[in-house]
Amino acid sequence: MVNPYVIHPARIVEKIREAEDITTYRLQLVDEEARRRFRFKAGQFNMVYLFGVGEVAISIVSDPDEPELLDHTIRTVGRTTKAIADLQPGDALGIRGPFGEGWPLEEAKGRNVVIVTGGLGCAPVVGAIEYIFRRREEYGSVKILHGVKTPHDLLYRERFDAWRRHPDTEVLLTSDQPDKTWCYHVGVVTELFEQVSINPAKSTVLMCGPEIMMRLGVPILMRRGIPATAIYVSLERHMECGIGLCGHCQMGPYFLCKDGPVMRYDRVEQWLGRTGV
Amino acid sequence: MLERDEGIRIMATASETCAVLPAADLQRLLDTLSAKGYRVVGPIVREGSVVWERIISVSELPIGWRDQQEPGRYRLEQTSSQEVFGVVHGPQSLKPFVFAPREPLLQITRSQDGFTTSPTLPQPEKVAVIGARACDLAGLVIQDRIFLNETYRDPYYATRRDGLFVVAVNCTRSLQTCFCASMETGPRAKCGFDLALTEVDGQLLVETGSEAGRDLLSNLSLSTSSEQLNAEAVTRIEACAHSQVRRLDRSRLPQALYEAHEHPRWDEVAGRCLACTNCTMVCPTCFCHTVEEAPDLSHQHAAHARLWDSCFSQEHGYIHGKNIRPTIKDRYRMWLTHKLASWIDQFGTSGCVGCGRCITWCPVGIDLTEELPALLTPGVKPPSALQHKDGT
Asked: Distance between CA atoms of B87 and B66, rounded to whole angstroms?
């Protein structure tokens, strides 16, 4: 096995400002061989490295069918992400990855897909949505339900608009602190469940966002007859190694960097919402 | 050496042949190991306890010393005996030899393309450790499962592990804090050793546990021990097991501890715990580590290293601006639940080997053999404790 600690340099090709403190970095691996080898599944993540500062786990946002350019949407919050925010196109970052288990897109073929996201939680499913729309006829109906706190928190506006135009696809947006410009639903994302029809036996749910959204949202979906085994959640914990070794990302018996970040709900049900887990 | 005898060894019977080395001739073993290129390491007395250090002469070993360990207390005392291995253990297990407290991973240098990385694997070194205990070996076997598993073989750990030769010592005296018998990890070394010694009145019974051990033993050309001596060794090891005052009942684990997540005892123990991280530092199995990036002053080179971390630290549960485990209660619960319960789901074994170090080296003497039964006894807190802060 290759040394999983080795970091590959990657150039910032483009820096896309998404919101006040959120930026998408489009990266390209410098080494051609590394670029050719790099293949990922939607929902996987990379350890993004800045020389002299360190690494941070960031999900890959871009389309898995275009693995030569790797998008990472990063919110500026900590030491490493603040230093990354100062970089410009042409500057170098590093990449280790891809790590973890992605979305169950093979298993979902032939089924309807319901995507429920909140805030920056929409980032890890963008790749899954692009994957599905490239193979539109292989999936049933697609429903994308996305909630934000304020309209300023709505990322990828053009993408949501583009997705809306696909056949048999619904995109529903909501904000719980809207301003005058907001023309969609007002409230939290779980309220959108009432606005869509879901065939519980034929739907696979992909969820990503704050854990409270999953804790409150999943029981509603289950009451509508969707089994826990058809609901997948992407979870977040502190991650340093990406290979289930450093111990930080544990949730009960799982190492989320290796067993997740995407987990089938029935496997994590008893851990989600426990304090300190 | 990694090619060790498979499976768990059963208690030697009086008929099993062992070699015998007079304790006065132990220097021959050290010299033979040195001649084979090993750096020989043994316990030496330092600052009131024993630590692993390079030894040249048997006289450097803590002959005549004994350790007394209790919750939050470690004392060495000198006796008039000529016992070589009277000290059971110090704060260090075998862990530091294989999972280094600070392991340089990469040297990273700025370049035109950003940077280049080169792995900094440790220099292969043959190290022979004299005096490891059964609990330490059990810890080593668990660390092997973590770092050398079927999907990932950590090259840094593997390099250190490949050079390790272990001379175990079967325990004939238990400490107040020992509970290896109930964990089925000791006091007799079961696997993972190259040679195992049992000290009986100035005689060292020698057993082999690997090809490297057999090879070394053949160099010593020792005589076969008497059945009487073998029987005496077995008797003493068994007596050692029976003398243990602490035990840990694993029969309801992991599930019972998972179910005890809201037990009021966590609050009680958190009131005593200092979150000092001592228990995790002395534990033979704890494997959490953090990665450090240390640039030099020119900012042209950076050393990328992994360091032991602890789930008791503030940063362990940090995630973009918040802490998953902000309280000491959260962290103690994380540690104990992982060690005794989720470890079983992760690695098919308990994370505890019964060495008792976390009891001894806890400044306030928190004792997991006392905490576990308390946590598995129904508490008295009202069921509202099951509720999350947001009422779900």
From this structure: 4
